[in-house]
Design goal:
Enzyme class: isomerase
Keywords: ATP-binding, DNA replication, DNA-binding, Helicase, Hydrolase, Isomerase, Metal-binding, Nucleotide-binding, Primosome, Zinc
Bound molecules: adenosine-5'-diphosphate, zinc ion
InterPro entries: DEAD/DEAH_box_helicase_dom (IPR011545), Helicase_ATP-bd (IPR014001), Helicase_C-like (IPR001650), P-loop_NTPase (IPR027417), PriA (IPR005259), PriA_3primeBD (IPR041222), PriA_3primeBD_sf (IPR042115), PriA_C (IPR041236)
Oligomer: single chain
Organism: Flavobacterium frigidarium
Number of strands: 31
Largest sheet: 7 strands, parallel
Number of helices: 25
Cofactor: Zn(2+)
Amino acid sequence: AKEINQILDELPIVTAIQIKHWQWIANYYMCAIGDVYRAALPSGLLLESETIISQKQNATVDTQTLSDEEYLIHEALQLQSTLKIQDIVGILNKKNVFPIIQQLIDKGVISLQEEVLDGYKPKLVRYIRLHEQYTTDGGLNTLLEVLKNAAKQKELVLNYFQLNASEQKPITVKKLVDAAKTTSAAVKALIEKGIFEDYLIQEDRVDFSNNQSNKEILLSSSQQAALEQITERFLEKEVCLLHGVTASGKTEVYIKLIEEYLETGKKVLYLLPEIALTTQLVSRLSAYFGNKVAVFHSKYNNNERIEVWRQVLQNSDKAQIVIGARSALFLPFKELGLIIVDEEHEQTYKQMDPAPRYHARDTAIVLANFHEAKVLLGSATPSIETYYNATNDKFGLVELSHRYGKVTMPVIELVDLKDKYFRKRMTGHFSDTLIQNITEVKALGEQVILFQNRRGYSPLLECLTCGHVPQCQQCDVSLTYHKHKNQLRCHYCGYSIAKPTHCHACSSVDLTTKGFGTEQIQQELELLFPDSKIGRMDQDTTRGKFGFEKIIDSFKNREIDILVGTQMLAKGLDFDNVTLVGIMNADNMLYHPDFRAFERSFQMMTQVAGRSGRASKQGKVLIQTYNPDHNTIQQVTNNNYIAMYKEQLYDRQIYKYPPYFRIIKLTLKQRDYEKLKQGSLWLYQVMAQNLAIPVLGPEEPSINRIRNEYIRTIIIKVPTATSVAGIKKTIQKMLNSFDAVAQYRAIKVSVNVDFY
Ligand code: ADP
Ligand code: ZN
Ligand code: ZN
């Protein structure tokens, strides 16, 4: 037996259900359990260790034998008893300090030890109170007597008494300093005199207790009916879909449902597809539930995430409702009663890279099963898979087919860009119909949203003389022009160069931009509407913790008149003064090479359209397109989800896609093109021979090189009716035998189950 060094945690930091759930993820999504653990645990929960260098005890050091660098370290250890590797890097001003450290160990000067650090730092707040002897009745008089010659300190004490009377809760040092307009040094002097004493309290970093507004929510009769139907469906089904048109008030139905679960002591997880959406939802939910709401997503820092983790683990009253992005699924829930998956159709629910490549909706359903909890999926445009399950008796289905209040669905009009009449009347990318509508809406003081599903200024810079288009050095893609920074940038790997002044192929200076992104729309708007305030919301403008919040707030507060953005603003946002939505170009979405392209285009356009006219006035939507007769565009215009669903379902059956087949995609990557070509063919052939189901490939994707690695894909289609577990075993066996071939070992293979 050995001595115990350190107790890591007094209680387990993960639950038995989590471990089962994570194992399921690793099995189902065919990845290593370690990948799941890495995704699941906030890094601060894992203890980190650091190497500490100290002077060897009882060492007699002959400084004559030390080199200059060794001597510097020896000196530093005289001043400070321990050093970290990083300190030594600083002292010697070089990167590789290990040889010198090794020499000092050999000479018996220093020794190393490992120190275990807890990754979590609690937030400690310094409070202040009067020393006990002055809290008696005569206390104030005694105190004033003591301080009779110290006017400033007396002032401070009086401020304290005032605060104490008005606040009726403990006073922080900061509050006192601010109130008395003094410095913390002055307060410190009074502490040293024994008049005040300070003490530390550990506090939560995030607190919504001030948000609560106690405003009641009265459901409309159709919302009330929907709520009752959901509860009814849950008697028989584990999962229910709430299919409610945009602005039907699904959020209000969720709130009432959540309340019912909390009343029985259960906890609720509320998943959102995108962090951008949490801002609005957190304020809506915390207005109702106050501090019972907690938030968990990747823009929160480690300490904040660990606090939520602990609150959930301790089943605390604070985190009864957790709002989060997909990673919130990994929290240590106890007594979880309900999971809401809002905007369930969103593809961001599927993690693409790195593993685990899990789908948060499907993973949520499995988690709920472990907890014997229920799942409510919500969307105005459900995914084909979910609607299929809901209409084939697997899930319950509840519909909300009207908007809340008296508002009707927006009017959708098409602007036919094929039509010469319309096309001649374009200013940049704006049809005169769109310009005219913006002008009218602006005159009424209402706001506009313009949607362009591409960031940057324009996708291409093209040479007019030879047609050359600058490409990324590391990827098989054209660079995107970002005017603001005057750069060409790769959206796959981040590679960037300054915008060239001449063509690198023929030296011509006749360069032109092709296609357009949000940045260009913003610029055109600034010229067209010089007196309007224009905002932009895309990946480039929303970096940083409060990136989204700032833009959403200023749009809500009407400091922005026209907001241009990418698909970020197509989701769930609720602005009450937007009456016009413009879709700049519907076509590039439609022609994406992907079996979900039409479904997604429908969802995207219907969702953006849904931002128009949500409060009291009917909204309008203008869609600019070269394909006004396209079925999908017609389905959007007629708000006909069912027509879209039926058409897509028919195609999915013919072409063997979900919900009839599960797609498992293998992606192979290697810098050596020939090696990859041979390896992927080898793997394809074994798969095709051993699996009695469709195997396609090895295909060269349309972008066949990223970060200098060539790419090939193999698609396996598993009929939904067959057991996927057995097939996965066979696939894994073949992947192992692929790995065993020496010449292919350097080919990386990743597996994506239920590819999106
Ligand atoms: P959805 O999520 O279905 O798109 P929301 O929940 O955002 O719709 O509701 C649209 C708007 O209508 C919101 O501003 C919301 O506050 C308002 N609303 C919906 N239901 C109610 C209700 N029962 N009482 C008051 N306002 C409501
Ligand atoms: Zn050229
Ligand atoms: Zn690149």
